[in-house]
Amino acid sequence: MLETIMMPEFYQLTKQKDVKIIDVREEDEYAAGHLPTAENYPLSQLATSFVTLQKDDHYYVICHSGGRSAGACDFLASHGYQVTNVLGGTAGWLGELV
Description:
Blueprint: E1 4-6, H1 7-16, E2 20-23, H2 27-32, E3 39-40, H3 46-49, E4 58-62, H4 67-78, E5 82-87
Parallel strand pairs: 1-5, 2-3, 2-4, 4-5
């Protein structure tokens, strides 16, 4: 079962501790604005780039609204990664995008 978190809860979580965030939007979307600590792993390249992720870490996966990140979470979880889909995505982020 896919683990999810709603944006308001996720926003509060980021205020309490450091979390690993993967932004699966394409490079141009990421460049236009992203969460301050998010790393870009575009969904179109995830099948080859995911090997650089650490299996000991827990990742929060984000896109614009939660659809693409759900697919990315399914893919990563099938390869043994600990992931949570952030519902609401960058569209629902309560802070500033960088």
